[in-house]
TrEMBL record:
It comes from the Bacteria. PROSITE patterns: HTH_TETR_2. SUPFAM superfamilies: Homeodomain-like. Transmembrane segments: none annotated. This is HTH-type transcriptional repressor Bm3R1. Residues 32-51 bind DNA.
Length: 196
């Protein structure tokens, strides 16, 4: 990567980081491209050249967050951790995913996204499903998953739990922010569902 490409990536990151901060603080509808430009060392024209519109900027921001999440999940799955640690990290990572957004931004802008949109398309969704099947395989090998159902049923169980968290981000923020013990108990209930 040459110097120009590095500067471009640095500017794009600054724009996306500033946008998320402003969207969370003031709400997506209340933030303008001009405000984003004032908060970053980037001109208004450059922002429009990179993104074209505020909607495209928001979509790129969400895509970047989802890409980062998928890379995190892949890193966790490729680690040498026992499956229990991997499951806890992956499930709790959804809470961290939710914490990146303010309740106002979630309510205003993320509530209309469907499952495919939220996971960046069918390709990302299939990627995550494949990882979940690896979790199931390792869980069976380590005797954490002992329930007498198919691997697809266990994967669906995990995906249903993740779906709830992802599509109820405000509730996830409330649970995680107000009561750490409740979050641990929910995790325990989830894990008990994988055993005979």
């Amino acid at each position: 990567m040459n110097g120009f490409e590095k500067r471009t990536l640095k500017k794009r990151k600054a724009i996306l980081d500033t946008s998320l901060s402003l969207f969370n603080e003031y709400g997506y509808k209340n933030v303008t491209i001009a405000q984003i430009s004032k908060q970053t060392p980037v001109s208004l024209e450059t922002i429009y050249n990179y993104f074209g519109s505020k909607d495209n900027l928001k979509n790129e921001l969400i895509k970047q967050i989802i890409d980062d999440y998928c890379m995190f999940v892949e890193k966790v799955m490729n680690s040498s951790d026992p499956i229990l640690n991997k499951l806890q990290k992956i499930l709790l990572s959804k809470v961290d995913f939710a914490k990146q957004f303010s309740p106002q931004f979630i309510t205003e802008e993320l509530h209309d996204l469907n499952d495919t949109d939220l996971f960046g398309g069918k390709e990302k969704k299939q990627f995550l499903h494949t990882i979940i099947l690896k979790v199931v395989e390792q869980g069976r090998n380590e005797k954490l998953i002992t329930v007498d159902v198919s691997d697809e049923a266990v994967a669906a169980y995990i995906e249903i739990n993740q779906y709830y968290i992802t599509h109820n981000l405000v509730s996830t923020l409330q649970i995680s922010g107000n009561n750490v013990n409740l979050l641990k108990e929910i995790g325990s209930l989830f894990l008990n569902g994988l055993k005979k």
